[in-house]
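Work Package 3 (structural annotation) set out to generate three-dimensional models for the target panel prioritized at the project kickoff. During this period the team completed the workflow that converts sequence records into discrete structure tokens, so that structures can be stored uniformly alongside our sequence database. As a representative example, we reproduce one entry of 294 residues exactly as it appears in the project archive.
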Amino acid sequence: MEFKEQLKKYQEIINTELEKYLKKENCPEKRLNEAVEYSLMAGGKRLRAILVLVVYKMFKQDYTEAMPYSVAIEMIHNFSLIHDDLPEVDNDDFRHGKPTNHKMFNHPTALLAGDLLFNQAYVVISKDLKDSTSNIQNKLRVFNEFSNAVERMICGEYLDTELEGQNISTKMLEYIHENKTGALLKLSVRMGAILAEANEEDINKLSAFADKIGLAFQIKDDILSEEGNPEITGKPVGNDKEHNKCTYVSIFGLQGAKQELEKTINEAVQIIEIYGEKAEFLKQLAIYIKDRNK
């Protein structure tokens, strides 16, 4: 199966699973639940959720055990997007080509929809822990890493917002995005490996791969903010420059950022060469991150 077909198939699997958690009953907080659904089912790439399943499948075939953690990471990711778009943070009007949550609903509703998604992720994981009769220690380890990665993501977002408009070092820029963008991507890979009972050498090797694609993902985002097609990205071009954000493009220039992206992806692919055919989807995913247009 071609990579894009596989990717689409995984996206459909994740979307079908997420739909099971939507609350559609007629209740006083119905509008809040609609706001949650609006963002959760807006059609994102689902890369984090997919990484959990793909890495799990490298070691065990049936990824049913990993599904709750795949769902939870997607809920956390969407919580972060709703809050990132708020006026106090990035102040974005569009995401995925549609009005952002606070534009579609209102500011308090968007804020609380993000809070609800954040909490729901922990409900999903805690329910799986309550119902599990095996692999408990690995699941507890995953729960701990999950909580720590969410904290790092929030700290990265804080620094990105707090240092906006300031001249910062390349080292600080890397630190911000290692946390803001990289923490959840790395978590996704580690959760899949730990849940599948991979050994520590494999977990560490796959973590190194995740570090590289996390960095590449952010560099590509910075490039798209500079030269992407807003009709495809669903976001206005030039937002980073308008907010005087320090990005890989502002530090290295557009061409330099593209060279950094190419180098980082090559390093990511090299790390997982040892797994051969088992890691083919991960290799193609790394190339997809480099070549994506949204």
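The radius of gyration is 19 Å.
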